[in-house]
Amino acid sequence: MTLRLGILARPSPQSYALRMAVKELGYQVGYCEKPSFREARLSLKPDVDGWIIPRDPVAPDMLASHPFIDTHRQPVVFLDTEIPTLVSARYDPWKYDLARKLSECRLRHARLSRREAATRVWVLAASTGGVEVAGKFLADVSPDLDVAFLYVQHIAERHVDQLLRMVERRSEWRADIGRDGLPLYRGQVTVVSPAGKLHIEKGGTLRLMDFPWQGQYSPNIDDVAGQVAREFGARCGMIVFTGMGYDGVVGSRMIRHRGGQVWVQEPGSCAAPAMPEAVLEAQAVDFVGPVETLARHFNETMAGDGSRLAAEGS
């Protein structure tokens, strides 16, 4: 099947070169405009399989939440470098790099087309310095594992779009904000918003509540970890990355009490070691390591657990 792609770009020599390159690489262009958010909300969504979003120096982080984009089913390709014109000497090398990105887009679209609820759910917990290390971890973890991540990062609401974009750009994982009615899909990172409390229903479906997070931290790691422990038991876990404070201590105890695992980033490798140290002091930890080791161990552990679960189900 030939992918039909949409491009969010205003008419220009650069967007024309992008359209031509996409077609030359064997894809269809189903849309190429850049309406305002207000215009987009009043329009029908274009019928496309994925989106290409060129760099926008005016609003670099708003496009990840554009009303046209449905991250449940449409992969997004972000172009960070300037698009050369057709007559530029940089066009051919740039087009080669675009081909690689569109090939990855095709694979991600295939995964989106066969979405399944995850058997296992892990919490990624972070605060100060966490965006960088979570990005490194996800870049090294296979999105084909039967696991979903709930990413709980102490962050201001205005930065959530940046977080989603970071996950999509730095890894092959799908990223979405926790929204009402969203299941926890395998191969997906769900970012928990600080805007309002998230409730996990039986079976893993998310519900947004009409009241804020309780306590000092927003979003609250202990709250999310406790709910994950209750719903998934031994098929859940949490990784506590760098951060200030002690959020995650209570949640780590609840996860281990239900048979799940708790891992922490080695404090010496943290920008802010207080959170991992607090969990270590609570003696609620199964594994400790720097980010690269955590990712490698996660791939090995999940692959082994997947083989065991398959054997149990046969």
User: Share of helix among residues?
Assistant: 25-40%
Topology-level CATH name of the largest domain: Rossmann fold
**Proportion of β residues?**
15-25%
The radius of gyration is 20 Å
Structure overview:
- The chain is of the alpha/beta class.
- It has two domains: 4-112, Rossmann fold; 120-313, Methylesterase CheB, C-terminal domain (Rossmann fold, 3-Layer(aba) Sandwich).
- Helices cover 36% and strands 19% of the residues.
- It is built from nine helices and 13 strands.
- It has helices at 13-24, 37-41, 91-112, 130-140, 160-170, 221-232, 249-257, 274-281, 291-313, and strands spanning 4-8, 28-33, 50-54, 76-79, 120-126, 147-153, 174-177, 188-191, 198-200, 206-208, 236-240, 261-265, 287-289.
- A seven-stranded parallel β-sheet has the order 7-8-6-5-11-12-13, sandwiched between helices.
- Strand 9 and strand 10 (206-208) form a beta hairpin.
- Helix 4 crosses helix 9 and helix 6 runs parallel beside helix 7 (249-257).
- It is elongated and about 60 Å long.
- The mean pLDDT is 89.
